[in-house]
Design goal:
The protein has 186 residues and is an alpha+beta fold. The chain contains 3 helices and 5 strands, in the order H-E-E-E-E-E-H-H. Bound molecules: ligand GNR and nickel (II) ion (NI).
Amino acid sequence: MAILDILIFPDPRLRQKARPVEQVDDQVRRLVDDMLETMYAAPGIGLAATQVDVQRQVIVIDVSEGHDSPLCFINPRIVAREGTEQMDEGCLSVPGFFETVTRADRVTIEALDRDGNPFRLEADGLLSVCMQHEIDHLDGKLFVDHISILKRQRIRHKLEKQRKERQHAESARAREAAAEPRRSAI
Ligand code: GNR
Ligand code: NI
């Protein structure tokens, strides 16, 4: 198992569309396990493969209070939706920001499980919202696409600024590390 790096908005790789999984094999199951470990470590209630730079239709979710009910959806499709509801959403790829999003209230999902067997699930509440949020990721969409352009731009600018600060700090550290041997050699 391994904890994977999560891409941060506005990384263009978050805009790629995931391809369907052709065969649910050990490689896919290893991805599912790594994604679950990454999701629990974050911590988050869901994770899409797109967020860890794997362009495959794989999602993991755990909305349980005890964080002990992992769900995995391979090639998920929404086959029915009903009603509308609003919920405050966050995203591991948009860290630190929460906005109200309107989505379907109830959805019916068809997907493959980790053995490659098809199943159907009716979801409401948090699970319904999370399913729609994760399937959006596989289509290259983010929750910020459901809010106003002004709010989206504000979030993008703040996260771009944070990324630049992080990069500057990293290169400063690298410069110092490179200078170290020379100093000690004198
Ligand atoms: O951890 C997460 N919490 C969350 C809260 C409200 C609506 C959606 C989510 S999903 C998010 C994890 C994530 O970014 N999944 O893609
Ligand atoms: Ni997300």
